[in-house]
Amino acid sequence: MVFGGTGNVGRRVAERLARAGAAVRATSRRPRTARLPAGVEVVTPELDTSGALDGVEAAFLMWPFHSAEPARPLVDALKRQARRVVFMTGGDARPGVAPELQPTPVARWHATVEHLIEQSGMEWTILSPSTFMANTLWWSEQIKAGDVVRGAYGSLKTVPIHEDDIAAVAVHALAEDGHAGRRYTLTGPEVLTQEEQVRIIGEAIGRPLRWHELTREEERARLLADPGFPDGFVDELLDGYATLIAAPPPAVSTAVLDITGAPATPLSAWAAEHAAGFGGEPR
Ligand SMILES: NC(=O)c1ccc[n+]([C@@H]2O[C@H](COP(=O)([O-])OP(=O)(O)OC[C@H]3O[C@@H](n4cnc5c(N)ncnc54)[C@H](OP(=O)(O)O)[C@@H]3O)[C@@H](O)[C@H]2O)c1
Known about the structure:
Domain NAD(P)-binding: 4-176
Pfam family, one: NAD_binding_10
Distance between the termini: 32 Å
Radius of gyration: 19 Å
Bound molecules: NADP nicotinamide-adenine-dinucleotide phosphate
Order of helices and strands: HEEHEHEHEHEEHEEHEHHHH
Number of helices: 11
Protein name: NAD(P)H-binding protein
CATH class of the largest domain: Alpha Beta
Strand content: 5-15%
Structural class: alpha/beta
Number of strands: 10
């Protein structure tokens, strides 16, 4: 069972499992437009009431909700059926810290789900990924319109990860023994500032892209005016950036290589793969 089967990571998990010949069910609120591979059974996400968990042995779970409320019935339903669960948590949930002491609402929801899963009796694995390379698509409209990307905190360092590398780890944890009770911090292969990420995308699409620094207030106004960006996430994102820029630089983890045997994908390769999303030629 892949919960969130049309998401950045869930879709890749479902595709990888289907390619490996597993019987796969995946959730979508709109099964008819889910565009999952033939052979993947698409179900709506009311897993605790719909019977969609019948026969499920292992589940990939992510958390798309804006509260932890649905977690208990969902985990209860899951543990009645599944032996194994792999949960992709949110990057800012601090390990070993009680849900109520987590720094942000998003971290509190994720930590609550982690806690329920750890207490569930299922074999659990928690994946804690760094920022997704797909987040760079937030710049796509600016890049389609010109060579300048405007934003705040251009010197912010992250270790962006390809969503497919997270999915590859998830499939190993779903299908193999040896991952129970483990929490994996997953990152891409290189620490990059936001400015460097823009330059790398430019190289992939053959354009001299450059960063233009905005103040936090200018960036806040720009994001609030962007119809494609959820207003409720603007302050949370900027607060997160402000916290991260004041913290020690992030470290590169070798977990993707250690678990899958393949090195984590560099942003240059992700950007070449997604060139069309920035108005470039697909490769
Ligand atoms: N972006 C990052 O940098 C980053 C870093 C670390 C961790 N994370 C974590 O990753 C998670 C997001 O993963 P993602 O980017 O792969 O997901 P995503 O692309 O945002 O996709 C969301 C998935 O959840 C489903 N969904 C949305 N709302 C739902 C609802 N109310 N009920 C049931 N299903 C719902 C969607 O399915 P349908 O629309 O088809 O129903 C879709 O499959 C979050 O927990 C986030 O904290 C993100």
